[in-house]
Design goal:
- The protein is of the alpha/beta class.
- It folds into two domains: 228 residues, Aminopeptidase (3-Layer(aba) Sandwich), CATH 3.40.630.10; 90 residues, Peptidase M42, domain 2 (Elongation Factor Tu (Ef-tu), domain 3).
- Helix content is 26%, strand content 27%.
- A hairpin with a 5-residue loop joins strand 4 and strand 5.
- Helix 1 crosses helix 4.
- The longest helix has 19 residues.
Amino acid sequence: MFTEILRKLVNVPGVSGFEDKVRESIRSSIKSYGKTWIDPIGNLVLELGEGEKSILLAAHMDELGLLVTNIDDDGKIRFRKIGGIDDRILPSQHVVIHTSKGDVQGVIGLTPPHLRLEKELKVVPWNELYIDVGVDSAEEARELGIEVLDPVTFYKPWSILGKGDIIATRSIDDRFGCAVLVELARKIYEGSIRPRAKIYLAWTVQEEVGLRGALALAHTLKPNYMIAVDTTTCCNPVITGGLKPGKGPTLRVVDNAGIMNPRIAKYIVNLAREHSIPLQPASAGGGTDMAAFQRVNVYAVSLGVPVKYTHSTTEMINLNDVDMLIKLLSVVIEDSFKNID
């Protein structure tokens, strides 16, 4: 079930600021479960259950991508990056330009080494690259429907690796989290998860460009507790220690945007231990929607799974970690932070 939801969401384009299709796909899946609404910036919220306390779980819908900034006279499509994209991954990528007339395929070309005169081949910065859509003029490009400010996504392969429990694809960050929330919504609606509090499930926008959707939501909907469901970059012994896929979900205690309240961290660790759920407390780079809610004085937690090759086109997760994360989140929702009060 989860894998089907994830694959469906991965293939929906949703560059930061252009999450409309992702939101529509999710809303169609959850609209029968409870009250839903969309706020002015574009966050989607589902309200379930009732109680004096409230808990909000959030996952961001947006993905890294590009934006068309100019169409050269010779038909080259110039672009800017949206989000933290490493210039090293751009050359030779297949991309899709999402126009008002439909999708247009393209590639980011690179001068081959045979024709480059410099002795040492260096990383070509994004502003020197362009998208080739197979035309020779700006007029032909516009005939295809391409216009300035059209969003661009990377081609998304889907690979199942290892023993069938490893998935490698683009935009696992954070369509994985979006899929987890859809699954939790179903379980709460069907009664297999029984919360002790009012539950808000939120699919946020523009996380990759500064947690903007979560910041807006934090100022209009202030829950007692908040859980960001997001990926944690792994496999750097200096920054992330022994964090590794296949060893359980992650408790993102420290990153560049926030530090979790030690009392809340201890609560999650103890709850996982009580239910025999493996858990990996982690230090990480970057930040999650947790930090947005901390800024308005809400107890906030960041839970997720380890991901290899984050912010590339080959992001990789272990499905066993996802299963354990869903189990842990179910336990947290049912316990509803009762031992914190």
